[in-house]
Specification:
Helix content: 40-55%
Number of domains: 2
Distance between the termini: 54 Å
Oligomer: single chain
Order of helices and strands: EHEHEHEHHEHEEHEHEHHHHH
Structural class: alpha/beta
Length: 287
């Protein structure tokens, strides 16, 4: 049985995710700040578009969201004509934005006061994962709400897991970004070393990617790093936003992240040389 759902935010991730919901037979209404994108979406998929998040959420059983940061999320939920004002009691808000854990807990509380559920469900897998319906989803929230939303999330996910109460999804995404930051820097240094040592870096990667050094970053980014191609993928600006949440949370919980803090500074250097929209693998350009 199809549900009445809305999707707020049709960026490189949200656009195909909303499409998978529509293709699964759900009645989808979309909202996007740039109306031309919403118009293009309804030309490609069955569904409708609304002028505000509140209008998109009217009567929906589930409201999905994938926007930019904490401020964007607050704007489309509790700001003027925000989605919470249009949601009916008993409905579920699923937030796929990567945000701070604090804003997830804040909106969980505000949603509860309105009789609606809120789960934080950031994703990993990038644009390709969204387009192929192969995202990994890390979830925080009440068990019942998460279980109710799970079949819909399955429309575009290869893996989803509830990791705890409100905010746990965002904390897990921070763990994900810590791992990626270190891996990309390590891969950058390894490729730089191989080239300086007179080796064919591509041939070396072919060998070591079959062993313990293998990683998603090596499999998917080593060749483009060697070729100096970075005009795609997960942007440095977005990673710096995410690492800002990581380092803020680390200050709060007392964890020590010296490598993550260093890589964040390296990314600031990439931004300074005009690479804010380059893929995160552009760390190698500093070497």
């Amino acid at each position: 049985m199809g549900f009445k759902v809305s999707f707020i935010g049709l960026g490189v991730m949200g656009y195909p995710m909303a499409g998978y919901l529509a293709k699964a037979g759900h009645e989808v209404t979309v909202y996007n700040r740039t109306t031309a994108t919403a118009t293009r979406w309804i030309e490609e998929y069955p569904g409708g578009a609304a002028a505000t998040p509140e209008a998109a959420a009217q009567g929906a059983d589930f409201v999905f969201c994938c926007v930019g940061n904490d401020d964007d999320l607050r704007a489309v939920t509790v700001g003027g004509a925000g989605a919470f004002a249009g949601m009916k009691p008993g409905s579920v808000f699923i937030d796929h934005t990567t945000t701070s854990a604090d804003v997830a807990r804040e909106l969980y509380q505000k949603a509860g006061q309105l009789g609606i559920a809120f789960i934080d469900a950031p994703v990993s897998g990038g644009q390709a994962g969204a387009e192929n319906g192969q995202l990994t989803v890390m979830i925080g929230g009440e068990e019942d709400a998460v279980a109710t939303a799970a079949p819909l999330i399955d429309c575009y996910a290869r893996m989803q897991a509830r990791l705890g109460d409100s905010g746990a999804g965002q904390l897990a995404k921070m763990v994900n970004q810590i791992c990626i930051a270190g891996l990309v820097q390590g891969l950058s240094e390894a490729l730089h070393f191989a080239e300086r040592a007179g080796l064919d870096a591509g041939s070396v990667v072919d060998v070591i990617s079959r062993g313990a050094a293998q990683s998603w970053q090596m499999e998917n980014r080593a060749s483009t790093m060697i070729d100096g191609k970075f005009d795609f993928g997960f942007a440095v600006d977005w990673m710096r936003k995410d690492l800002g949440y990581v380092l803020s949370e680390a200050r709060n919980n007392g964890s020590h992240l010296p490598v993550t803090a260093l890589v964040d500074q390296f990314y600031s250097e990439v931004q300074a040389k005009g690479g804010g929209r380059w893929d995160t693998s552009s760390l190698i350009t500093l070497l």
